[in-house]
Inverse folding.
């Protein structure tokens, strides 16, 4: 701050005027602006942006809470966020938390400490009540359906999308359907489990508990999944897999074992990943890039909005993409 | 700052003392520290971290210049960076630049403006001379071999790694070898082109210009590559492909077309991606996660080091992983 004072003294203006010039504030006379700019040029002064942030109360930074970057689902949302941030000239502070609540809380504390202007939560292990406490300090947007919460959300309806996939399989004549997901206790996967059980109860199709398989996060798990299905006495005719990369690995392993897709096993994936397209995988496109872009647009509007801190809930459409694996 | 002044007034201490307490500075008497802490508790004052940054001159943030997140190569480096940043309690400011030099310069300006403590450049379109100008303002680490430059680097030797792959193919008896890469004019791909030409000149094997294929960045390009090779009058017996996801797509398309790997076409990839492992793709593991981790460790040492700003150049080892595609 000493530097700003010095510039003010040499320019013969107030400190307030200097900070207005630094921030392109309109209410500064041309004479004063020129005096300040000349002094700055003489002193070759570079502004310390921390002083600017302190004065403006804005950092033009948004933090992103994300468990793991290398998961396709997360990396594509991140790319959508990053594209919009670049357009808006905002910076993203990436907080890879591995679902550790203490790390996620630290990011929310950054909002309280005014280090960032808002937080986008791509996926979290925190309860909504905990997140709500921080809405007093600035806007928060999640990429999960947060219902009636006091923070905003941009989401697809996992329940409807998942039931759509199940109904599609039933309409194609499959009577026994399995299901594979990542974390068993995640908020999206809990919703998918409900959809799976509700669908079976309402359709009257048989539900085998062993056909619900969890902890399938990567390609190795996808290959192991095929072997697990093969070893079952009674295996499902079709399977719906949350994550095209897992479904793709299952398909590749099936090819090695002489199991035909879809004749011996029909497969629907999630995410519309490039590898799935190559393999002819039917999938549910949950518009990840669009979700990231919409999440940034929403937080940006909330930061700049003068309509107070009313939460916004934006539902995005999913799309079933038919290929040859069903 | 008004808040800090107020706390100082109520506590009966100087502003300096308040800021020392906020920053856990040792030279504060217990009496004064307690007085300040009591006042803060009474006022429920949360420190504005921008004030703390201004006072300490540290932001505990490092910016990362990265063209695109969704490319496997970049996302794994990012994950290595993020893991180490989490351990060191640093934040990463992600700057997805799409190789736009004006955006890359803005990130370097953040270093000059003291908004961040250092910059990691994963890949850039800026010339080394331009980057060197910014070393006066703080540490910079690149993930490319920067030779004798004034900024640091953590890298694998793409030239040696690529020649190793070519020699491996020659040793297996392949006499005609093709090459596929992403950007033609990138710094790493320029090095690989040199390696490809030098290898052919020194080994005496025939080099066909049409066997050097560029702009293969994604899975679709990989599938198209197979068709391009199939359409050649004289096609190579083997191909080395920068990017396992492109090589994997080529292999999957070959399977559809009845082209046998390696009997009709041998393939070596780069990056050791999970999809390549599933397909039995022989690859050169360029240790991307380790590179990201080492890049963060290096910038962290440079931020906290008292040995001045001497650049460090760390070479990491690559590894040829033999599977069944050669």
């Amino acid at each position: 701050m000493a530097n700003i004072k010095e510039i003010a003294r040499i320019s013969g203006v107030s400190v307030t005027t200097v900070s207005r010039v630094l921030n392109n504030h309109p209410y500064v006379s041309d004479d004063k602006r020129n005096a300040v700019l000349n002094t700055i040029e003489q002193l070759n002064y570079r502004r310390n942006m921390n002083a600017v942030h302190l004065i403006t109360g804005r950092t033009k930074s948004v933090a992103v809470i994300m468990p793991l970057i290398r998961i396709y689902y997360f990396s594509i949302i991140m790319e959508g966020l990053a594209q919009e941030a670049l357009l808006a000239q905002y910076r993203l502070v990436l907080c890879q938390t591995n679902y550790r609540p203490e790390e996620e809380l630290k990011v929310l504390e950054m909002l309280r400490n005014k280090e960032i202007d808002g937080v986008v939560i791509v996926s979290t292990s925190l309860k909504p009540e905990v997140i709500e406490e921080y809405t007093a300090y600035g806007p928060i947007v999640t990429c999960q359906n947060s219902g009636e919460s006091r923070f905003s959300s941009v989401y697809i309806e996992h329940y409807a999308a998942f039931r759509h996939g199940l109904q599609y399989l039933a309409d194609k004549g499959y009577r026994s359907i399995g299901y594979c997901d990542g974390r068993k206790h995640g908020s999206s996967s809990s919703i998918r489990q409900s959809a799976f059980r509700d669908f079976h109860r309402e359709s009257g199709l048989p539900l085998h508990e062993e056909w619900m398989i969890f902890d399938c996060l990567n390609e190795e798990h996808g290959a192991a999944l095929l072997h697990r299905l093969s070893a079952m006495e009674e295996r499902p005719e079709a399977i719906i897999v949350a994550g095209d990369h897992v479904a793709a690995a299952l398909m590749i392993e099936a090819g090695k074992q002489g199991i035909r897709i879809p004749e011996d096993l029909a497969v629907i994936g999630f995410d519309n990943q490039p590898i799935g397209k190559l393999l002819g995988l039917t999938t549910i496109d949950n518009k990840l890039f669009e979700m990231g872009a919409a999440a940034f647009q929403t937080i940006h509007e909330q930061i700049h909005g003068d309509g107070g801190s009313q939460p916004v809930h934006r539902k995005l459409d999913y799309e079933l993409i038919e290929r040859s694996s069903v």
Notes: Chain B has a mean pLDDT of 89. The domain at 61-156+288-317 of chain B is CATH 3.40.50.2300 (Rossmann fold). Chain B has three domains: 2-56, 61-156+288-317, 158-285.
